[in-house]
Structure formats: C-alpha cells, structure tokens
Amino acid sequence: MTNEELAIRAKTGDKDYETKLVLQLEKWFYKVSGSFFRRYSERCEYSGVTVDDLFQSCYFAMLE
After folding, report:
1. CA 40/CA 60 separation, integer angstroms
2. What is the DSSP letter of 55?
3. Is residue 61 classed as helix, strand or coil in its secondary structure?
4. Which tens digits make up the pLDDT trace of 15-46?
5. What whole-number distance in Å separates Cα of residue 33 and Cα of residue 56?
6. How far apart are CA 54 and CA 44, in angstroms?
7. Beta carbons within 10 angstroms of residue 8's beta carbon
8. Rounded to whole angstroms, how far apart are CA atoms 20 and 32?
9. In the 8-state DSSP scheme, what is residue 12?
10. pTM greater than 0.90
11. Exposed, middle or buried, 7 (CB in 10 Å: 0-12/13-18/19+)?
C-alpha cells in the first residue's frame, strides 16, 4: 500500500493505518532529521536539540 493510501485511511481515524504509515516513513524521518542536524549542528547543540527530538517533530508534523 502506498503512503498516500495509508494517509487517506489514517485520516479516517483508523489507528492501524496510522501505525503502518509511521513504520513505513520511519527511515525517511531519520534521514530528514539527520540531514537537518548535520546542517545546523551548531544551532542544535547550542539549543540542546538532538536528532531524536527532530525525529519526534517529524512524527507530529506527519500527524498534522
């Protein structure tokens, strides 16, 4: 099932599809988080932001 199909079904409130979508996007979340952290590492370290914090932000952005 594609990400788009999973997103449409997750929007209906079905938690099973939401979980499947998160698992499918997990690698992409880490890639984006790591890329952002490497690019802005000084700012992240100064602010106390970790890659895991950025990963969680990806998750919440996906929920929106």
Report:
1. 20
2. H
3. helix
4. 888 889 888 888 889 999 999 999 999 999 99
5. 9
6. 10
7. 12
8. 19
9. T
10. no
11. middle
